Give the backbone structure.
Amino acid sequence: MSGAAKRLIPLFDRVLIKKAEVVTKTKGGIVIPEKAQSKVLKGTVVAVGPGARNNNGETVPLTVKVGDDVLLPEYGGTKVELEENQEYHLFRESDILAKLTQ
């Protein structure tokens, strides 16, 4: 994780995610045109907030933690550029579709 991502701490139930790289070549070495590339729906959790608050004011901890691989929705999230050529996205925990296991 980069230094800039370490300095950003999401609030409440928000999660900072770095999306996986887009596949631009096949295993055989054929370059895939930009229009034919599929959307990246996987990412790695870089930082998490402390959690949302319930009606009693208690903090409800998040179910994802730093380092988890997650499945993301096709649309949504807020794009955040912390460094040159490094793009991150902020999602609410409820927007994340699933945790991926190894």
